[in-house]
Amino acid sequence: MEKNCAIILAGGKGTRMGKKINKLFLKIKDRPLLSYTLEAFQKNKYIDTIILVSAREELEYCKSEIVLRYSFDKVKKIVCGGNTRQQSVLNGLNATDKCDIVLIHDGARPFVSQKIINDGVKYANLYGACACGVRPKDTIKVKNDDGFSESTLDRNKLFCVQTPQSFKRNVIINSHRSVMNKNIPVTDDTMTAEIYGYDVFLYEGSYTNIKITTPEDLFLGEKILDNFNCLDV
């Protein structure tokens, strides 16, 4: 039985990148961004299988130019995403019928460490739902409608959530199906579990586990690769 499954979301358009192609196919040091993300999970000893969620028109490209070209044999299925991230996650979950733990990860976070993945599996087994993240470095203000500072939040109680977000399969698939049936919009998977009544454990991620969103992030990504091999951490 394949116990631990990673769902990699690769169907976003990435309009803020300002490119005509999916940002995940852009290259960092002569390799597609998505290949780094998949390799991190391919190499992890606790991940048994990977489900890749792609836009319908990019399914064949993902298969030939990413999965087969880089020999990612843990990728067992490439499924079509939906119109929203929420629907894409549910499509991926519906393809995971033989696993205990599911890790949901943004394809645009290529610098996820092995420790973060390992901890996601560990804490999902312990608590049923967990996510990695970091404390904000900046002071966070609440701004009112007139543009003035309304209050200052306690930075020690704030947490910038990243992915992977990891769950026992029954926890997250039931949560997603429930919120979809009730037409409740959610911004991430921990919110889905919380709405359904589950407590989510938050554990330490990394400031290098960035999401590639803008052209500036590509330059930062190159610097990250120059300074450490994120796939072996």
TrEMBL record:
Enzymatic reactions: 2-C-methyl-D-erythritol 4-phosphate + CTP + H(+) = 4-CDP-2-C-methyl-D-erythritol + diphosphate
InterPro entries named in the record: IspD, IspD/TarI, IspD/TarI_cytidylyltransf_bact, ISPD_synthase_CS, Nucleotide-diphossugar_trans
PANTHER family: 2-C-METHYL-D-ERYTHRITOL 4-PHOSPHATE CYTIDYLYLTRANSFERASE, CHLOROPLASTIC (PTHR32125:SF4)
Pfam families tied to this protein: IspD
CDD domains: CDP-ME_synthetase (cd02516)
Function noted in UniProt: Catalyzes the formation of 4-diphosphocytidyl-2-C-methyl-D-erythritol from CTP and 2-C-methyl-D-erythritol 4-phosphate (MEP).
Glycosyltransferase is among the record's keywords: no
GO biological process terms, semicolon-separated: isopentenyl diphosphate biosynthetic process, methylerythritol 4-phosphate pathway
A single MF term (Gene Ontology): 2-C-methyl-D-erythritol 4-phosphate cytidylyltransferase activity
EC nos: 2.7.7.60
UniProt keyword list: Isoprene biosynthesis, Nucleotidyltransferase, Transferase
Site residues, Transition state stabilizer: 16, 23
Keyword Plastid carried by entry: no
Higher taxonomy: Bacteria, Bacillati, Bacillota, Clostridia, Eubacteriales
Pathways per UniProt: Isoprenoid biosynthesis; isopentenyl diphosphate biosynthesis via DXP pathway; isopentenyl diphosphate from 1-deoxy-D-xylulose 5-phosphate: step 2/6
This protein's name: 2-C-methyl-D-erythritol 4-phosphate cytidylyltransferase
UniProt-annotated site: Positions MEP for the nucleophilic attack, residues: 155, 211
Class in the EC hierarchy, top level: transferase
Gene giving rise to this polypeptide: ispD
